[in-house]
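Fold it.
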Amino acid sequence: MTLLDATIPEPQPSQLPARPAASHKGWLGQLLLRLHFYAGIFIGPFILVAALSGALYSLTPQIEQAVYAKQLQAPVAASYLPLADQIGAANAHVGEGNTPVAVRPAPNPGDTTRVMYADPNLGESETRAVFVDPATAEIRGDLTAYGTSGSLPLRTWVDQLHRNLHLGEAGRLYSELAASWLGITALAGIGLWVLRIRKTKLKKDLLRPNPNAKGYRKLASWHGALGLWILLGALFLSATGITWSTHGGANVSELRSALNWGTPSVATDLSGSADASVDEHAHHHGAAASPAGAAVNPAAFDTMLSIGREMNINTGLVEIKPPPAEGKAWVVQEIQRSFPTEVDAVSINGQTLQVIDRVDFKEFSLAAKLTRWGIDIHMGSMFGLPNQVLLFVIASAIAALVVLGYAMWWKRRPTRIPARPVGKPPARGAFARAPWWGPALVLLAAAGLGIFLPLLGISLAGFLAVDLMVGTFQARRARRATCCN
């Protein structure tokens, strides 16, 4: 017995008249309807918040450019200073003795260079970013940046709202519930749509809202048609959203590792190259880096970028990272996540100026490429503004579906029974009418999903417990009513 099929305890067979065997017809639709209903009622608030915050996040790149125009933009000039001069100005601004953990040169004329520093007062994945005019070395801003995307405070605030409601690691459970159940709800909904379109005569009424419908039927018409048109988008957001989750995301990572679908990264360990000879072209590159642990020579950033340009770094969006510890290499990597994707990387021995390793996106496996593209489309960076608009539309439609679902539940309430303020859930009994293999397949699928997506399994078990208690209460009330009568 499950949440979707919990039945009220029945009277003893001797109390019931003989009846024909129950038909198996219609059990699947009844099961899908009950699944869709419970997921919508209990998980709807989580999906609604995730959809609204996601829709807002899709607009933040343009908002960020407007709000932080002074920090991100600089006058176009005829010539620009070496990185060493720009980094020197940033070092003087934050205080001598501070060493950048990364530098992002101005990608285009009119952009600023971003010099990034570690700060013990900042959170995980956060850096202090100093924005420098590449032509004059003027300091144009000093802000906190987050993650590889380099999002600034406003966009980071919206991102954390979407990710964890600003509740830290515990808050990520909400988004994992939303992502896990969004896909299940969408699949149950399309299953109901397929069953209905096979029976209805006016099939066009299931492809677009019925203009003649009223009341509950009007709401249901809009709910069904809207859900159909955004189905693929909802499934995509669910699947890619799970990869960021705590428990389900960890299982996805383990699966990718087992299938060798991981994303390649450059090797930075110098232990195997300690005796390597000096690069024969070193005299063309300029200054070598200072040993790890010492203040990094700002001129070394120009040197490393030059070496990277000779290898595989050919886009304007670049990040240069000095060694984080003794025995590690410099890394120069592309960070262009828009199409065409440019995430090539190279690691360099700071003492010998020898290239240690390189990674090229064109050599990624198909699975690694799809992972990269899926994340970038989910974040709205892959295709720029069109990608953002599409995400905004899909997320807004998902939010509308949740609202329509609750409105339908409200419309179905029995207005003449004050004790029942909301609509009844779909009837139980689907498993009782199903052939033997039906419940077996459903339970097997539920167990598999519960193992792979633990929060989905735990929440499903919680719904089952509540539903069984409600069913038991209703059965006892029905027995008392029978006895009294």
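Strands lie at 102-104, 113-117, 126-132, 139-146, 318-321, 330-334, 345-348, 355-359.
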